[in-house]
Amino acid sequence: MFKEAARASSAAPTYFEPFEYQGKKFVDGSFVANYPLNILFKELDSFTKHNNRIQLAGVVSIGTGEPAQSERKYKSGTTLKAKAKNMAHLSTLILEQVVGQDLLAVEMAEERCQAHNIPFIRISPKGINVRIDQIDDGKLMDMIWTTQLWLIQNLREVDKLGELLFKLLSEPDDRKRRSNTVL
């Protein structure tokens, strides 16, 4: 089931065929629902409103990585060339807002989970700005290295994820706390 859920919500509908499950086609939300947890919460609210007892065991939010934040300085300029350059910067900003990481949505989802005692784990290494169709080995190695560093620097989150998955998939008498993490 996990594999199907991951495949059905894979990013970049222009790169992946729609996922078929039980005769239905699923396509990533992309522009419409770039961070679909709000849709999950809406459906959960709809179920509970009709006295259906459903409780989330946990939420694992896996991002595609986030570019490192950079300071932007926009100047309108007086020449045509300067104005054109500013328009290019503005179009980049608009594109980032439409398809980029929506930190407010992530924060809202995390706060909702905390309010209902639902474990929330976000995995999205910062400093990654790689296109999905990237084939340059050097850039791909940089991405892998950045991800490895993130995993090492966020062992607590990695352990939290392992504990959540172990709790969900193990028998009650098998549960033991991990003593360390080996990467």
From TrEMBL:
List the GO terms this entry assigns under cellular component, sorted alphabetically: mitochondrion
One of the GO biological process terms: positive regulation of ceramide biosynthetic process
Q: Give the UniProt keywords, A-Z.
A: ANK repeat, Lipid metabolism, Repeat
Report the GO molecular function annotations: calcium-independent phospholipase A2 activity; long-chain fatty acyl-CoA hydrolase activity
- The signal peptide stretch is none
Give residue ranges for domain PNPLA.
1-41
Q: Which SUPFAM superfamilies match?
A: FabD/lysophospholipase-like (SSF52151)
Q: What is this protein called?
A: PNPLA domain-containing protein
Q: Which organism is it from?
A: Strongylus vulgaris
